[in-house]
Amino acid sequence: MPVLLIHPPAAKPCEPPPGLARLAGALAGAGITCRVWDAGLEGLLYLLRLPLPAQDTWTRRAVKNRQTNLAALRSPAIFDNSDRYSRTVKDISRVLASHAALHGAELTLADYSDNGLSPVCSRDLERAAEQPESNLFYHYFSLRLREMLARNMPRVIGFSINFLSQALTAWAMMGFLRREGCRSAIVLGGGLITSWLRRPGLPQLADGLADHLAAGPGEALLLRLAGCSEACADACLPDYSGFPLDEYFSPGRILPFSAAAGCYWAACSFCPEQAEGNPYRPLPIAAAGAQLRELVRLHKPRLLHLVDNALSPAFLKSMIENPPGAAWYGFARVTPELQDEGFCRQLRESGCVMLQLGLESGDDGVLAQLGKGITAAQSARALSALHRAGIGTYGYLLFGTPSETGESARRTLDFTAANSRYIDFLNLAVFNMPVNAADAASLATGAFYDGDLALYTGFEHPHGWGRSQVRRFLDREFKRHPAIAPILRRDPPFFTSNHAPFFIRP
Predict the structure, then answer these.
(1) 3-state SS, residue 328
(2) Partners of 352 in the β-ladder
(3) Residues 323-347: pLDDT tens digits?
């Protein structure tokens, strides 16, 4: 086993991690033996099997029904009843939370925090590595790592860390490996590591634990460490054969796929992609389509999750011309094509069941300041065209940006209410200012939260529309609007957009 690739706990357990599949495909294409380990999924399944001491009535019921609930979540039938779905998911999460509480930690199906340690504090990460046995998942990962190392010491061990909820356990796993005398080269990569490496003033990260840190795609580095040419790394088919595809918490196989790194638009002032300077690196459209069709042939997924920051119009047209052969969804910008009902109907015929749209605001002045390149009227036309074509919409709204005022936020409320019949799901976010955003230089800034690895900075809002005012508006006005409240109630708990396509009815 020259290379072991690890997806550490905890992350949503609804689909395999696309980054590891892409890395595994590049290694397999070069003839390098590779093992992938979704410890995030396995760690949650491990906890769900453990006994729990006597608890309250809800927890006792959740423990008694945990396997029945898990089987139900893997069945399409439960998505016909949103109330039953919600109870099932919350019961499963209740069992996990109860285990974590006994350990002094907090765990849900979507997040994890442990013993008061902060993943954005480098000293806390060091503590997690120094005392791996204090981690909630220690008994699970220590047994599995010992088994793997006893069979065959890998030349390289790669950790893919995309979320803050994974960082503390990843450091604990690295600390355990070094304590056990593991001599493998350890590589850290993934979206979170990339963001940290592009953060100004980065402190020492994983010093004495990791040998290499990868910003952006890690195929070339892993191929080089494995002693192989890095040519054609991007052209290889993602390899999902090593993942337990039927054990994820979803009603059928979901295959995530990335047709491009970065964003083709890359002009939104609030976006970390722009702040971090991540380049746009698309696969050739024909190659991306061919890979999708081959993955469908090999694995028979129920759903394809296109994880690009924004699917380009050219890629969407290619999906119409050469459908992948399975239902699919992903993020897209509001473009002229999506305002054309005929184009949207062709997308639906290609298998598109839902599109995630970064609407951000219903105020044209705010949209212009954000660099969105769209107007509220164009967003409304796209929402209507998609709805009429039978494609679900998951809208994203962003409040508290430097250009927003209370009045413009209420225009967003009016826009949302006026178009509510065309919106299936909504995500409401309060703006976080990236530490390296261009806007930060012109504003009075301060600590967002303690931690030398924080990716965001606090700022003094130029119009007095601060986070507390925004949250008060959302809680007292926006969420209570009779046209908007039903949309928010439809959002699948914990899994949100990952499970939303299963609720879309043609």
Answers:
(1) strand
(2) 328
(3) 999 999 999 999 999 999 999 999 9
Residues 142/147/153/159 CA torsion (nearest 10 deg): -40
Report, in angstroms and rounded to the nearest whole number, the Rg of the chain calculated over CA atoms. Answer: 23
| Helix, coil or strand: residue 427 | strand
| Residue whose tokens read 């006893």 | 150
Q: Determine the straight-line distance between the first and last CA of the chain, rounded to whole angstroms.
A: 46
pLDDT tens digit sequence for 34-55: 999 999 999 999 999 999 987 8
Judge whether residue 233 has pLDDT over 60: no
Q: Which of 403, 389, 392, 408 is nearest to 463 (CA)?
A: 403
CA distance 376 to 104: 46
pLDDT band of 409, cuts 50, 70, 90: very high
DSSP structure string for 194-228: HHHHTSTT----STTT-SEE--S--HHHHHHHTT-
Coarse DSSP helix, strand, coil percentages of the chain, rounded to the nearest 5 percent: 45, 15, 35
Rounded to whole angstroms, how far apart are CA atoms 216 and 421? Answer: 39
Cis ω on the peptide bond leading into residue 30 (within 30° of 0)? no
Q: Supply the pTM of this predicted model.
A: 0.95
Q: What is the CATH number of domain 254-503?
A: 3.80.30.20
Q: Structural domain boundaries of the chain? A: 1-226, 254-503
CB-based contact 404:440 (threshold 8 Å) = no
Percent of the chain with pLDDT over 70: 98
Mention every residue, 6+ apart, whose C-beta is less than 8 A from residue 75.
251
